[in-house]
Amino acid sequence: xxxxxxxxxxxxxxxxxxxxxxxxxxxxxxxxxxxxxxxxxxxxxxxxxxxxxxxxxxxxxxxxxxxxxxxxxxxxxxxxxxxxxxxxxxxxxxxxxxxxxxxxxxxxxxxxxxxxxxxxxxxxxxxxxxxxxxxxxxxxxxxxxxxxxxxxxxxxxxxxxxxxxxxxxxxxxxxxxxxxxxxxxxxxxxxxxxxxxxxxxxxxxxxxxxxxxxxxxxxxxxxxxxxxxxxxxxxxxxxxxxxxxxxxxxxxxxxxxxxxxxxxxxxxxxxxxxxxxxxxxxxxxxxxxxxxxxxxxxxxxxxxxxxxxxxxxxxxxxxxxxxxxxxxxxxxxxxxxxxxxxxxxxxxxxxxxxxxxxxxxxxxxx
Length: 366
What we know:
Layout: H1 7-20, H2 22-31, H3 39-52, H4 57-69, H5 73-83, H6 87-95, H7 100-103, H8 105-122, H9 131-140, H10 144-157, H11 166-176, H12 181-187, H13 193-202, H14 206-215, H15 219-230, H16 233-243, H17 246-256, H18 260-269, H19 276-280, H20 292-333, E1 336-338, E2 356-358, E3 364-365
Antiparallel strand pairs: 1-2, 2-3
Helix pairs in contact: 1-2, 1-3, 2-4, 3-4, 4-5, 5-6, 8-9, 8-10, 10-11, 11-13, 12-14, 13-14, 14-15, 15-16, 15-17, 16-17, 18-20
């Protein structure tokens, strides 16, 4: 058993470090258990020294550690918050000081918004950390970006937990996190589409507008947006393919035909989806189209692939039809066993006799 000196000896050593080397004092307090000395006496001595050196971080950390060891967690928390020490999050987790989050929300957000949000979300069912309470506090501070971070984290963790704020999140994503707006819209089914569309219009979020217009049942307006605002022929073709509407292909050709670059894109990509004559016949005369020769060759090749696929499908259908017809013919020509409980399907009466095999030719053998 290791010999233990009197508390006064340990306090003397700590006091020496306090006067001459605060860093060593900090390390020593971390290493020594408070059972060796009187921690309150050391706190009092540290307080005296802090009057001379009020910004000495090592002394403040020592004081926080000692308060924590004494179970005075709020005092330790206060010191960490005042000094902006990241250790405050470990203290909150370790000592379960989650209730203190709301009262110190802005300070914690500034110190580490991701850590704060994670703690809030992890304990969202505990008073006073319910979603409504946290949103109210963040709203009152007028720090909308922090509100967005919280609601975004909440949505990633539990999409249903903040459902009443989804409409508001459209504006928040459009303002602070544009890349996440479209995935958010795709995931939510409870957002008023017209209001979401208005927000996207205000922020010129055309890709999101395309998605919303398509969901609202207005694919032609969505397609027009792709062509006129996004100016992306590949996306326009992809959109028409997804919708699978012949009228939409006609609209795509009509909207693109005056743009030679778009015409080239169509020639290169639509051969397997539409009759190429639809496109070729609408190209105005004397239109200069880049790489027209190569594009026409590809168009015809793609169309031939489409023709070959259809012919292959036709042959398969004919073969399957023939096979099924033979199977039906054999089944119709096979015998049916008749017993005393059999009802005639023609007249509805019970068949007389048992142990009879009847064929479609009306022959019978008993």
